Every structure is written in C-alpha cells, then in structure tokens.
Structures
1.
Amino acid sequence: MSLHPTLQPYADAWTHSIEAISEMVQPLVEGEWNQRTPCPGWSVRDIVSHVIGLDCEMLGDPRPIHSLPRDLFHVKTEHQRYMEMQVDSRRHHTAPEMTAELEYTVIRRNRQLRNESRDPGTTVRGPLGTDVTVEQAYRTRAFDVWVHEQDLRTALGRPGNLDSPGAHVVRDVLLEALPKVVAKDADAPRSSAIVFDVHGPVEFLRTIRVDIQGRGTLETAPALGPAATLTLDWETYVRLACGRVTPETVTDRIKTEGDPALTTAILNNFAVTP
C-alpha cells in the first residue's frame, strides 16, 4: 500500500533534508563535529544526534536510559530535557559512529515510509507522551529536519536549500503560529491589521487581522492602512521564528513601518519553537 497522499509531501520534505544532512556530515573530520551551530547549546554532533534520536522514536525504538548532567545551561524546560536525552547520550560518539548510525537510521526510516499504511488521522505517541496524529508526526519531522539542516549549513558554511520542499512545510507551520504571536503575545490593538512582506527564495505577503475580541486571523489579502508592516527576507524570518537570532542582531535586515512599539513587541515575541 502506498503512502497516503496527505503524508507524501512531508515524507518528500524529510527525505530531501535528511539526504542533504547525510551528504554534509559524511566527510567531516572529528573536530568539525564539535563546531557550534545557531541552535542554542548544540554542536554539529548534537544536532545530528537529535535528528537520529527523534527518527528512532518514529521507528518505535525505546528512548535511552540516561541521566543528564546538571550544568547544561541551555536546558530550562521539561520539553528541552526530553530532547536533550537523545543528544547527551551520544556526546562521546566518534565521527564514524555518528555517520554509521545516521545512515542506518535513514535506511530504516525509508523502509518505514515505503510500508506506511496508517491513515493520517491515526493517533500515535508523540514527544513527552502526548497523543498526535500520524500526519502531525510526519509534518513535525519534516519541519524539524529542515530547520536543523539549515543550522548545519550555517555552522559548516554550506548555504542552500532555502526553497526546498522542507522550506514550504516550515513556511506553513510558522504562518499558523503568526496570529498568536501578533494578537496574544504582542497584544496588537483590536480591530487592527499587521502586514508581513517576506522576500527571497520563499516569498509571501500575509496580513494578520485582529478582531474586536482580540483574536488574530491569517489572511492572504493585503491590508489598507495597516497598524504596522514588517518587511524582511525569508532566511531572517526563519532564524527569528526558530529562535536562532535575536531581533537586535538582525535589525539591518528588517524594515518596519507603523507603530514602533507594536513592531518591537512582535519581534520580541517572534520565536515560536520550544
């Protein structure tokens, strides 16, 4: 039985990104695995460990039995502790061990994708014991792997794939989070509109309208007389939304118009990944 059409775009995006990651890390020498990435607290090795670990969980493998050190400054929440277990348990693995495990995991996941027969709405176990649908799980993996591919590209000086299949999955996920960022987190004025004009490899123009009850909705229609407009490139949008940079470090890449207090509040609440 072939993969359900709803799941196919996420499988394609995951495959594209995981193959890019494998190609990037295969020739790395031992020292290069320790390079810092834009992902707070994680090296190249840590990101590859995270990718391997979560794909192993998708395969149903048991999580490692491991005690985290107490001095991991970047681990502050229960979600971060959960994610760190797969990472810290591999921190002393050698480069050949890392590439071998990655290759083996990719082979197993590709087999799983070929044999996937579950309905997209089937409930499965997600991180921290939460219940998610198969579709949510596939979508989250496509999102996660593309973002971490970009982390590795930044760390290794190998830019690219900003418009790959995973990029479009990431765009859609981040846009879904935008109404909450604007209406709730930034407390935009009621009965207002805020426009986001994003250019580059992935382009879009979106409006967040805040109604009289303070609820935000995402619209494709441009707004006349918006309370604020933010214009920025796609790479900066992603890095901000995924917490890889702070607004202060990319001010030269963002153009804002309208209420300065509002645009500042939006940018200060822009990061939506845990």
Note: The helical segments are 8-25, 44-58, 78-88, 95-115, 134-156, 165-185, 234-241, 260-268.
2.
Amino acid sequence: MNIVSTIQELRKEIRSFKQGNLTIGFVPTMGYLHEGHLKLLEEARKENDIVVLSIFVNPLQFGPNEDFDSYPRNAERDQKLAEQAGVDLIFTPPVTEMYPDEPAYTVIVKKRIDVLCGRSRKGHFDGVATVLTKLFNMVQPDKAYFGMKDAQQVAVIDGLISEFNFPIHLVAVPTIREEDGLAKSSRNVNLNDRERIEATALYKSLCEAKELILKGERSKQKVIELVTSIISTNTSGKIDYVEILNYPKLEEIEVLHGNIIIAVAVKFTNARLIDNITIEV
C-alpha cells in the first residue's frame, strides 16, 4: 500500500495504473474509518484491479455551526484499516494542497438539496460537489463507491456525475445494519440504553411502510402517517422529518410510482439518527 499527500504524487501513481490498463475503484472519505467505509472498500476490492482511498476533511462542506477543527481524525488507525481492506493507494492531502488559495471557483448544486437533511445544511452539498469534482479529475476512477446510509448525498453525486459527464460508474452500496435492523452509525454510541432499544423503530417503520405499499397503497400521506405513528408510539425521540420523494431526483410526489425513497430523521437526547429505504413501485 502506498500513501501520497500531494496531487503531483497522486497523478504519477494514476498514470502508472492507466498505462497498465488497470481499473480503478475509488472510495472518497473524510477518514475516521468505520464499518460503512470498510464495506465500500470491500466492494471496490471485489470489482477493480486497483483501490484508491482518499482521506480529506473538506472544510467547504462544514457550515457555520459545524466545527471543522473538532472533526475526529486518526490517521494511524485509518491506515491500518485500509491496509487490511486491501487498499492500494491512499491520498491524504492537507487543506493547503487541495485549496492553496481561497477557491475562485466552486460547484453550486441547485437541485436535490432543499429536502431531507439538505434543507437545514445550506451550502453543504456545494462543498461536497466541489471537492468531488476535484478528486474525480485527479483520480480518474472507473467506479466510485458511496453508501446509501446518506441517500441524499448519493443522489447529489449521481446528478454531479451526469451533469458534468464524468466517465464514472456510481456504485451505491446498501446501508450496513445491526442485527436488529438499526443502521450502523458512529452516533449510535450517544444513545442511552432505552433509546438504543427505541431506535430500532426507525427501520421497523420503514419496513412496515414498504409492506403497505407492496399491498397496493399509493397515497403518500397515508404511508407517512403510518411511519410517523410507529416512531411516535415507540420512541421518545422527536421526529425531524418523514419524507417520501422520487429517487434519485428527490422531487415531490403525491401518488407513489416509480423509484421512491422513504426517509426519516429522529432527534434523541444526544443523537440525531437518519435512515431510509428505496422502493420500486
């Protein structure tokens, strides 16, 4: 496994891979790797000759109330996990390498952002799209891997790849779950014992909604009412949103048809949890 921190070094490695006609799978991250990241690396390892991992805490996607400096970092641990996962190349640039000056050009995302978590994170996806545009150009991967845990991010990246004609295949990897169905997240440790049990209601509500739709229900409002009722009855958390949209365009619909996403966000005492499922109706 090789580790590089400059764009020049990265491009030298990528040229070597391309000259050898090797396929490249790319997993962009902000580090502090967890099981979700490792699943992405596992899928990339299966499907490509070369696996490239980037670790870069991107300041452009942090809002004014989000502390860039306190974002967790552990380079030594990340490198060990990456090596165990079969990563060939890690790109770990400092901020000064990615943004030597204040950016004169950024990507502005106009669609797929004013819903779900994006509604309360203005500018977040502009930062994501900007850094990925840079990374896609540097790494030139054949495939890029992202987790469906953050389905809105996957939708935005799908639009980015399509809009800018990147010759990249987006691989959306299913959410990793605990045995009881709870979506794995670093935030789960902030749940108390009672809330940890209650939190399973999020995925249960989504599964019940899916069953209702498969039985023929096509009213968005009735499905939302079911999900809301199950979460409200079985948890002490405060519902942030329950939304049903088409996917991946994330547009409003009233009658359920085509590919849709049912997404929820619930605030517990010290943790805000999100979950979703997609269904072809």
Note: The first strand starts at residue 2 and ends at 4.
3.
Amino acid sequence: MYVCGPTVYDTAHIGNARSVVVYDVLFQLLKFCYGKVTYVRNITDIDDKIINAASEKNSSVESISTYYTRTFHEDMRSMNYAEPTYEPKATENIDYIIKLIEHLLQSGHAYESNKHVYFSVESYSEYSALSGKEIDELDYGNRVEVSENKKHPGDFALWKPANDTDYKLSSYWSSPWGEGRPGWHIECSAMSHAYLGQDFDIHGGGIDLQFPHHENEIAQSKSAFAGSVFAKYWVHNGFLTVNKEKMSKSLLNIIKIRDLLHSGIKGEVIRHALLKTHYRKPFDWTKNVISESQETLNKFYRLLRDVDVITIEKIDAEVSKDFVEALINDLNIPEALVILHEMATKINRTNNENEKL
C-alpha cells in the first residue's frame, strides 16, 4: 500500500490527520487479515511551499523540512498510529527520480523545453480515466500551470530548472537537463516504484489529490512501464471542512493538531472524532466533535475499569466477527464503532445483573 504523505512546510492540521488515521486503520486491518503488509507513506521534503516557508523565515529548506517532519511524527504518534513500513523522502530519491524521467523521455512520453522537462498528456490515451476530467476541459491556470514552454496546456512538469531562490537556498540538484529540482507528481511515482515495484495493491490519499496528482502518477507510471497496472485499487478519503467552510489561512480556521494537544485534548479523542464519519464522506469539524468523542471514550473507560483484566488475559479471546466484517466492508469504521457501543451496552447490562445477585 502506498499513501501520499505530508508536504512538510507547516505543522499538521486536522485534514492531514484524517488521512493518517484512516489509512492507519486500513493498514492494521490488512495486517490482521493477511499477516504481512508493506505500507509506504512518503515525505515530500522539496516543494514550492517548503521553499516559500524557508524564504519567509530566513531559514534553509533542510531546516524547515526536518523541523516539520519531526512535529508531524510527534503529533501523529499522539493518536496511536502504527509507523509505516517505509517512509521515503523525495530528496533521498533524486537519482531514482532522474532515471524515471530519462525513461519517459526515451519512450516518447516526455519532452525537454527550455531546461524544463514535461510529461505529454496527449501521449497517454487513458489520461483522466481516474478523475473523469476531459483534457480539453481542465482548469488551466488554476490547478494546472500555464506556460509557454508546454506543447499542450495540460502537460505537467517532471523537472524544473533552478531559479535564483533555489540557488540561494541550495534547493537544486544536477541533472542531464541542468541544475534544478523535480516536479511534485514524479516524486510519488518514483518512490512507489522504488519500494513496491511496477504494480502494487492499494494507493491511498485525500480526494483532493485525485486530480491532478493521482491522475498524473498513473500517467507517468503506466507510460514508463509497459503493461503496468500501477495500483490495482484506489482509496480516497473525503474532504474535511470546519463549520461547513473550507480550511484556509484567509478564513483563519485552520485547526492544528498541535494546538488541540496543547489545549489538553488527548490524541485518542482527536482520532475518535476523525473516524466517526465514513472515510469516503465529507467530514465537517464543529465545536461539538471533541466533546462528543470525549464522552464516548469516557463511557468505554468507565466500563473497562469495572472489568476484571486478569480474567480477560487468561481467556483466549477472539476479535468480534461482526466488528471485523464491518471494517472489511469498505472500511466501515462508523459501523464498527456502533458494534463497540452495542458490546459495551451488553457488558453494562450483565454487570448490573451480577450486582443485583
């Protein structure tokens, strides 16, 4: 399983955390069902946002990415997630990225233009199969960069030449096309291939990455390796809003995990709140989500305090079949939580009856 990880230019917000906990549940479910699972989640540690953050803070790209990678790990560990099998960084795979770009150039799916290297979307007949977007109807100038260097406005950068800021911050590498840095999309194609091969089972990420990021990953990878299916299954978690509005700096409504933790909210409460809604559905964060999750967990904790743990440890207990089946059914975590509530109610009833005796 490959999941698109964070771009480390700022502390993690609840949208980042939703993706982490959703795929953590999937990872642990797959391990429960199959035993061994290889889970790769990358770190994007070179990107325009990181470079801008380094410029604004008069720091280096490496310092910014290292600091925010550490804070990401600290915040996510508070929510009791399992570490992925591998967590490659883009900057540690530059040679592999360059080789993949060279392969795309040799196969006629990419071209060099004014020290840029672009992928030709017209060279790949199945482009837009994942997102359903027509090439001629794409929103050029918004999510797709407009450039006179391109043959087609939908073509996307595989390699970008270094500019003055890159030289100032040392955010560039040598390549056959001159000094520069990779485009975002090629990073994930290179790292998934490096750790999982041409074909693997599951690719995950937020629905906001479906286009253009995941669409472009498919085009690159399937074009580079003839006969490849790349990822057999695609999993996307839904959008997260705050009081029905998109999180943004302009609205001052970005909710950081670190701020929640510093306010005294436990990571397990945040995790429960983010898992109450089915992963594919949009999730709206309101002022009540934390208090509701805290109340639910308190109920479970009170129940566990009354259970004879020593007796339980002596029993060869099995995980509830209904609980597992709920998760296997398109990762229906809300249904699995309902089953936990039903189990808690039965245990409570039994305890009350025993007390009467």
Note: The chain is about 45% helix and 10% strand.
4.
Amino acid sequence: MLGSTQKPSVDARLLAIAGAHLRRFGRRRLTVVGVAEDAGMTHANVYRYFPSKSDLVDAVVAQWLKTLEVDLAAIADAPDPADDKLERLLLAVAHAHRDCLESDPNLFDAYAGAAQALRPVVRKHRARQRALLERVLDEGVAADAFRPRDRERAAAFVIDAVYRFINPVAVRADAEAPRDVLDTRLSVMIRVILRSLASGSV
C-alpha cells in the first residue's frame, strides 16, 4: 500500500535495543531481562531469537563488523594499484578499531571479549578479512608489484606485522598510547610490508 511503512522484524528490533543497552551499560551489565522489558516481551521470547546473552552481544558486534567489512570490500574492489589498496586496507582496519575504542568503548570491549574467547563472530570476520587481503596480494602478484616467495607466508607476514594495530585485544592494551604515535608506527610497518612484498623477501 502507498504510504505504508514496514515494521522492523522482531529480531532486528531486539538487536537495536540490545545495541543501545550494550553501549549504555556495557556487556557485563546488559541483561536479557532488560532488553525484553524495553521490547515489551518476556525474556523467554528473546531466547527464541537469541539463545543466550552471548549470542545477543555477538549479534550486536557482528553488525559493526559487517559495516567494516563493507568498507574493506569497497577498497579491495577499487581500480587502484595493489600496493595502494593494501595500504588503504590496513589503515582502514586499524583506524576503525581505534575509532571504535575511542567513540564506542563498550561495543569495543564486547568485540575484544569475543576475540579473546574466539567466538564464531570473530573467527568469521577474520576469515573474511584474510580473503580480502589475499585477493589484493594476488592482484599485486599478477601485476608484478609483489613477488612473495609463498602466498600463505606472505599473508601471515602482513597480519603479524600489523597485529598490534588490528587485533582488538592489542588495540585495547594500547588505549593510553597517543594516537599520532601509533599512526606513525603503523605507517612505518606498512612501508616495511610493501618493501618486503616488492623485493620478494617473504
């Protein structure tokens, strides 16, 4: 019907409420009962959509990660040289982590907690990130911009080199470090990565 508005699904509404509670109270103080009350339903109904509090928190984290993945895919899909795309990809991941830590600390804490527990939401995200990284590396090899000795080792080298800037637990540990100092260190590491890939030393 013209002029009608479609109501969000129940799970989408619960997710929106849970996201607001997570940002306000943090993951430890967020409760399924509180989310249910704001949704106007019993907590038993919430469990029909999200089997546990951890699943509910993970779903909120997954929403943020999905936004990041869309941004990273856009970089990987761009018609730029592979070395430029790799630099932009690494900067985007690092800056997204630091931005979330600073502007949305409770969400970031939930993300870091999921990473520490190796929750499926984080494992899937890492797999998608690595797939994008490997695609850019393959483009660089095809264009003779990168000359890695071994594709898997090269991908692992890139991830290890920037671990401090893209792993949420490590990022959280550096919360008190000045951002400009970390940005300078990241830029140095990216230059090392690009030189190593171009020279075939990894």
Note: The first helix runs from residue 10 to 25.
